[in-house]
Amino acid sequence: MSNGKKLELTKLSCQLQTIASAVHDTAQDCQGNAKAILALLRQLEQLHREIRDGAFQQSLPDNRQGLYSLLRDIEAEGGWPYIERMRLQAFLTKAEQQTAVENSSEVLENDSSLNW
User: Fold this and answer.
1) pTM
2) What local confidence, expressed as pLDDT, does residue 116 receive?
3) Contact at 8 Å (CB) between 40 and 26?
4) Which among 41, 49, 35 is positioned nearest to 23, based on CA atoms?
């Protein structure tokens, strides 16, 4: 690998670290605010889509050998990037847990036999 390529990769790595830190800081600032975190996740998903459909597709190799090499790199580096969505079942489980906690609290508060 040439020195120019190494310098480009180092610069990219620093830029990616800066972006990751900004996203982590924003998520930390939104802690406890589900709507704000959801907005952050939506923005990240939109950015993912824009980059994939724009810059990434435009930079794809135009020959079989280049595409094959790219696919090998993708597999070697951990596969295709993917943004997983939370499943509805996870929301329902969280709601059921919250309801159970609220119901048990109400029972304890309303049960006069527990008063000391």
Assistant:
1) 0.69
2) 52
3) yes
4) 41
